[in-house]
Amino acid sequence: QVQLVESGGGLVQAGGSLRLSCAASGNIFTINTMGWYRQGPGKQRELVAVITRSGSTNYADSVKGRGTISRDNAKNTVLLQMNSLRPEDTAVYYCNADIGYSGNWYNYWGQGTQVTVSS
Length: 119
Hints:
Largest sheet: 7 strands, mixed
Radius of gyration: 14 Å
Shape: elongated
Order of helices and strands: EEEEEEEEEEE
Number of strands: 11
């Protein structure tokens, strides 16, 4: 079985920064794309940023210039550094990964970590 465990959420004032971390563990042969998604109150889950195994990245327009996604392939981790946080960044942030093992690919989600930005 595979687990994605997020950490680093919390309460922060507008203009502040947070770093979210996600670690994948379990029966893993390789990990392709990893990413962060978020779901704000009353909203649908949306993409924040994704990164491929080779390091190519894609960001939502709303976080471009404020967010940086990175990963450590040796440690099966993905990080999201968010700066200049705004109240509208308040959401539950979820880690996502495409994980390969036993000859197949599987998509996994973490349990989510709450980020609250106060004005």
